[in-house]
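Table S2 (continued). Query chain:
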Amino acid sequence: MHVPDGFLNAPTSVATGAVAAAGVAVALRKAQGELDERAAPLAGLTAAFVFAVQMLNFPVGVGTSGHLMGGALAAVLVGPWTAVLCLSVVLLVQALLFADGGLTALGTNISLIGITTVVVGWVVTRAVLAVLPKRPASVVPASAAGALLSVPVAALVFVLLFAVGGEASLSLGALTVSMLGWHTLIGIGEAVITGLTVSAVVAVRPDLVYAARGLRAPLQLRNADGTLVPVAAGGPEPVAARGSVRPLLIGGGVVALALAGVVSFFASAHPDGLEYVAEDEGFLATARDHAFGGSALADYGEVGGIPVGVAGVLGVAVVVVLGVVLFRLVGRRSPAAAKRADAVR
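Corresponding output:
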């Protein structure tokens, strides 16, 4: 649901840009509590994975397709504030390198995909977790529910923005029905992808899933005769030893590269839900050409004759580098990082 330049008027685009800037600024500060030396590279991988999967449009109806937005997925894996930064990095790279999503509409896209889907996905996930058994496996259906609802809510927010500053006059009732109808179907695909991804990570490293924190029973130490080792009052709870995060990063990186470099060749060529609705409702012509629409990488290499897989691999690499650098810088400013630095001194 990448909004191009021209769908919304200048004042509305400026307003959504201000919302996006404020949201990212708050996320930069709040993410300090979510990021550490282990979470930073995982957040970079999450951003790269979201970028790769967003290239894989899947059919949702005759002549229509959809793709992952990733807000709920990122929030569950690395935390809501870090997720906002993950999605913002992805959207920035898409807009600047691949002419995907307008430049003047960048604030709109961050507000819709990078903030709305994260907030809705995280709130719904936490609400579902509150009624499910307190175990890591519960994160899977909870995240799927959050992903499912995040997409039509983002579509509804677009309708509200169009009602305020749309560049075409049309029936808002028909637009609402069409947007919600198609994006509910896309939300089902979002839920499936999110659930499968979260399930895979929970199966191998539940300790790295942000939404699963506090859902694991504390480790209980036993003596040779089977009796429990008492924990001193006020003392720390024993915790399981944490393994290296490197195997997950390598495995996840290989999957992201495979999706962007190989599977992307088989993505649906049909227009996504927003583009299909815009054509059907008669406002597609208001879209303006992207300022970088003539670059070699525009439309993921199609303009410059670059194979989509090559463009995808390049995109994954750029997102990983930008993401890891950003998340390490933010993590170093966190209170936890400051305490570690003081301990070293």
